[in-house]
Amino acid sequence: MTFNDELNLFLKARYPIIYINTIEEDRVEYVIRKNVKTNLKRSIYSWDFVDGYTNNPNNQGFGKRNPLQALELVERLNSETPAIFLLKDFNRFLNDLAISRKLRNLSRILKLQPKTIIIIGSELNIPRELQDLITVLQFQLPTEDEIIKELERLTQSLQITVDTKLFENLTRSCQGLSLERIRRVLSKIIATYKTINENSISILLSEKKQIISQTEILEYWAVNEKFDNLGGLQNLKDWLKKRQTAFGSQAINYGLPTPRGLLLIGLQGTGKSLTAKAIANDWKLPLLKLDVGKLFGGIVGESESRLRQMISVSETISPCILWIDEIDKAFSSSESKGDSGTSNRVLGTFVSWLSEKTKPVFVIATANSIDSLPLEIIRKGRFDEVFFLDLPQKVEREEIFKIHLQQFRPNTWENFHYSELAQLTESFSGAEIRQTIIEAMYQAFYEKREFTTNDIRNAVAELIPLAKIENVQMLKLKKWATSGRIRLASTKDIFLN
After folding, report:
1. d(CA 165, CA 171)
2. Residue 183 is inside which H or E element, if any?
3. Do both 130 and 163 map to the same domain?
4. Which of 117, 125, 326, 413 suits a disulfide with 405, CB 3.0-4.6 Å?
5. Count of domains in the chain?
């Protein structure tokens, strides 16, 4: 049911007080006036704290700086006159005893008369005594069709030609922004580039950063990692490639469900975080990282509130990627966070959202261990797939060395002995391979010369890989991966040694 359909239904059913939760005050007023003009014969009286009532010469300025007086007009107006009273920011006065009492008294009258009070506000905070009287109606951000119309209007007025793929990416990037913010950022794009091109996407994504910065538990990550920087993991790359275009209109028209997300499990340094960043960059979607340390608050009920806030912000700016690093530490099955039931309540809310979410929020969760992962997380239906990121094998280690050395020495990278280095770095993760190169560079720089294969060889000999320190944990992960309950990110088989 659309917003207009719900509003019409509430008005016809004589709901006394409707609260519209939105940040788009001008847009919701425009929609209401257009809807009333088309479908209903009602007068509209608009009030705000500074100017009082406007748009009506008989009551111009009435109730200025007096919210209680603003409600008196509802009584004064002829009982047979159909009317809608738009009270802007009136939610700020609901906790006042006089206002609360007046609204309860008025509700009895409103049920018998063709009058409705509509409160427009951006913060949903309704006192307990008014919760039975006030009906909350959500005013959604611009739909895809509204965004398309706005982009078409702009491009036609400026006589700018935008190809189909770029137009679709622009539409997707604008989702989650208010219409006013979309217009503002498009003006910024035109002022910067004099046209609309691929660079426009980055400006739109940075605009979403402003929304994310309003919450304490989410961080906006600007990324430039590419899949080319990931050595191996071919199964995972192929899986992701098939889902890259699943957020577009063609996929929706095809009837294809939006991808839910994936769970990446493996030791530290195997490329889990790098994969999350590469996906966001490749798919041209904003990357939000959940700070699990701030999720669990000290006050009872605060953790649940923060989780709901995280969900709300993520869905508001969708399509996006939500990155939950080390989810095994956030939702540990063996540890308790806060009060005894907080962890279970937060976990329950989270997994329910994972299963039932309809907004295009692609969740990427990473975990280093399976011991503390709750079964609710791993169960099918939460994530589209669970991948195990094993330590790279010899061919993959060669590829990883080449990727990093091409970055550090783009002109001389072919001078290194890759087969030998790959042979020496058995049980090394991708991050550890990179670190051996950096250590070799430090040594050579100290000696005022260029680093060589021998320097990397010496660095390898000095580094003890995490897999040997955490050998028991590594074997446990490998045995679990070979059980068939998890997909391998690499095309290579797992060797238990």
Report:
1. 10
2. helix 179-193
3. no
4. 413
5. 4
Q: What is the pLDDT of residues 266-275, one digit of tens each?
A: 888 888 888 9
Same domain, 91 and 68: yes
Choose among 288, 274, 466, 259: nearest CA to 369: 466
Is there a single domain that holds both residue 272 and residue 356? yes
Residue 46, phi then psi, degrees to nearest 5: -105, 130
Residues of the domain holding 188: 144-214
Q: Is a pLDDT exceeding 50 seen at residue 379?
A: yes
- Which amino acid, residue 230? L
Per the listing, tokens 């540990």 go with 332
Please indicate, yes or no, whether residues 101 and 56 belong to a single structural domain of this protein: yes
What average pLDDT score do residues 452-474 get?
87
How many other CB atoms are there within 10 angstroms of residue 398's CB atom?
20
Summarised one tens digit per residue, pLDDT across range 107-135 is 988 888 899 999 998 887 889 899 999 99
> Whole-angstrom Cα distance, residue 289 to residue 291?
6
Of the candidates 116, 38, 19, 118, the residue with the CA atom closest to the CA atom of residue 77: 116
